[in-house]
Predict the structure.
Amino acid sequence: MHNKKAFLLSIGTLLLSPLVFSSQAIAQETVNVLLQEWRIVTDVKEVKSGPVKINVQNRGRETHEIVVLKTDLPHDQLPLLPQGGIDEAHTGTVIDEIEDVREGSRQSLSLFLKPGRYVILCNMTEMENDKLEVHYSMGMRQPLIVN
Ligand SMILES: [Cu+2]
């Protein structure tokens, strides 16, 4: 009887240990991002490297987008294209993006981020009453540090 109990216990330990490992492996950082006119609000400024979930909610009235860019440039001094919007090809590496985050909607990105400096930004550009609106220049940018 004792032996059987001991056997069952060790089986239980064997079965449990991979679960413990996997729950540690999927432990991930989360960044909650609010989009609005004309700013991006994030609930954290730094996360640990590895799996990072970015939850995006558009609290504004216009459609926005979110771009996660890895760059060493200051978040508010990224080079702009002549027609407005940042030059994604010459600023660093675009890790991922979600286009067309509509008013009121929520979306998310599951990323694997290496240590470094990142910028979360909206790179939408549009003509509004004959005036060019460059969302990035109007303030839709936020730095994120991955340690
Ligand atoms: Cu925008």
Notes: The domain at 28-146 is CATH 2.60.40.420 (Immunoglobulin-like). Residues 64, 122, 124, 135, 140 surround copper (II) ion (CB under 6 Å). The mean pLDDT is 88.
